[in-house]
Amino acid sequence: MSQKRITSILLMIIIFLAILNFIQYINPRKEIIISTSSQSEVRIRVSTTTSLYATGLLDYLAFQFNKLYPNVKIDFIAVGSSAALKIAERGDACIVFSHAPELEEQYIKKGVIDYGRIIAYNYFIIVGPLDDPAGIRNASSAEDAFRKIYEACESGRTFFISRGDNSGTHIKEISIWKKIGIDPHGKSWYRETGTGMDQVLIISNEMKAYTLSDTGTYLQFKKEGRLPNIEELFSNDSSLINIYSIYLVRNCSSDLIPYAIAFIDFIYYNQRDLIGKFGIDKYGVPLFIPAIDKEKELACEWLKIARGY
Amino acid sequence: MNEIIDITLRSIWISGCATLIAFFIGIPLAYILAYRRRAELISSIVESLVGIPTVVLGLFLYFLFSKSGPLGFLNLLYTPQAIIIGEAILVIPLIISTSFRILKNTIYIYGEFAIAIGATKTQKMILILKESYLGLLASFTMAFSRAIGELGIALMIGGNIKDFTRVMTTAIALGVSKGEFELSLLLGCILVIIMIVISVILRIISRGIKY
Predict the structure, then answer these.
(1) Do A91 and B205 touch (CB under 8 A)?
(2) What was the pLDDT predicted at A36?
(3) pLDDT tens-digit profile of A23-54?
């Protein structure tokens, strides 16, 4: 009988704690208001491309920003570029990080996003098997490299892995195929995986196939030793430029807009110190190049990509 | 390390709350259902909903909770409460379908006996719930495991926000996309251990309560 009583009391305590905690979750801001005392906490929601978030850059930027604005919490939602913009369109985010100029242009025209700033750039790279059956190591341009990959694939020597998920990287890849007038869809060597960059890199490592990758994810996986069968074969071509921009979402609620603009400006004006030095200690090279020194050239490049010239 | 503990506790509380809510909604529904004569159609529908893909439910709830959706004014999207609601909805069919059979069986054995010895309606209910205690507990454990192990809802309407809505499954997914497979594997092991430990604890408690 006493054992029964003890166990039922235990059960009651567990249920009580669970309910107590749920109440805490219902008012998550209450506690923090007390602790920071002076200003109430503000949460800014930011939708972002996964490639940018997975490098850890954004958490680092938010951490630095919080030194100036301790009451502003930046919440990152990491999805693909197209999903990030879609979330913004539905009013669920205040700021968007994106690297797909074609899509950004559409949303700017629709009046969803505004106050665009180019904050960083780097180059997409073509990775492939170590023995390079297509011979793209000494290709003259990205188009040339893709043509060589096409020929090698057609003769059955290798594969090409595509993101197939409407991400910035995928859109870039499609635009290169379009430029050389080849439609790879439906070919047996063209594998559309519909997954993130991480999975695509792992798959191309397993299949010893070619793929287009962003620098950040590739360096991270290479450094962790996950990609023994593939390596960077072609890079640094101006047509492979990867431009990261930040936007304010227009239907962001008006009391959040000043904080959102503060965050955008903070990143924009501190690019050299924050973005330019990020990743050097870990990878030996910066993952992103700050855009502020080449702003006009990058704006031209952005327009070129967006309008498909 | 601190973050791992944080994520683990958050996971347990979110899924625990979701399962409790679902339990207190699901068991009465199952009890009512067990007393109905032609419950087979409803129960088969509910049973089929047990395996609903979490990402489908997540997407549906995203449209519901989104700012431009019908419940956008509640500001629930990308909060822990949203995950709790989503996971509760996810496991309600599981709780109903598993406890429905047990309750029906117990009612078949003890229902008329209870009336025969002159029990009131509430006394009868208490007797039946008591007799099917172990089965109900098993359904609770299953529901908790399903809730803590699901990814789609936590990702779609939780948003995997650091220190706010990041739970074990979304942290595992992020770890994979960062190439930190060891961290993901560690979190995965913790997740399985938690499931087993909770199940064992509930079993020990139930033993104490029964006799």
Answers:
(1) no
(2) 41
(3) 555 544 433 333 343 468 899 999 999 888 98
The residue range of the domain holding A109 is 38-121+242-307
- Its ipTM equals 0.80
Best probe of the B interface among A43, A60, A89, A92, by most B CBs < 10 A, is A92
The whole-chain average pLDDT of chain B stands at 92
Residue B96 sits in which domain range? 2-210
Burial class of residue A31 (count of CB atoms within 10 Å of its CB; 0-12, 13-18, 19+): exposed
> Which helix H or strand E contains A151, and what residues bound it?
helix A142-154
**Does residue A17 have a pLDDT over 90?**
no
- Residue of B17, B72, B177 lying closest to A21 (CB–CB): B17
Could you count the other beta carbons within 10 Å of the beta carbon of residue A152? 21
Q: A91 and A220 in one domain?
A: no
DSSP string, A28-79: HHHHHHHHH-SS--EEEEEEEEHHHHHTTHHHHHHHHHHHH-TTEEEEEEEE
Q: What is the pLDDT of residue B184?
A: 93
Nearest to B208 among A6, A21, A199 (CB): A6
Q: Residue window 11-30, chain B: list those with CB within 8 Å of chain A.
A: 13-14, 16-17, 20
Q: Say if the Cβ atoms of A91 and B177 lie within 8 Å.
A: no
**Å from A143 to nearest chain B CA?**
29
What is residue B112's three-state secondary structure? helix
Kindly determine whether residue B176 and residue A28, on different chains, have CB atoms separated by under 8 Å.
no
Q: Is A78 within 8 Å of B178 when comparing Cβ atoms?
A: no
Measured distance CA(A297)–CA(A300) in Å, rounded: 5
Under an 8 A CB cutoff, do B181 and A226 touch? yes
Let me know whether A221 and A259 are in one domain: no
What is the DSSP track for A272-302?
HHHTTTTTHHHHSS-SSEESGGGHHHHHHHH
CB pairs < 8 Å spanning A and B: 87
How many domains does chain B divide into?
1
Tell me which of A174, A200, A234 is where a domain ends.
Answer: A234
Q: Residue B95: which CATH number?
A: 1.10.3720.10
Instruction: Judge: A18–B16 Cβ closer than 8 Å, yes or no.
Output: yes
Which comes out higher in pLDDT, residue B46 or A282? B46
Flag whether the pTM goes above 0.80. Answer: yes
Chain A CA closest to residue B64:
A90
Could B178 and A3 be called an inter-chain contact, meaning their C-beta atoms sit closer than 8 Å? no
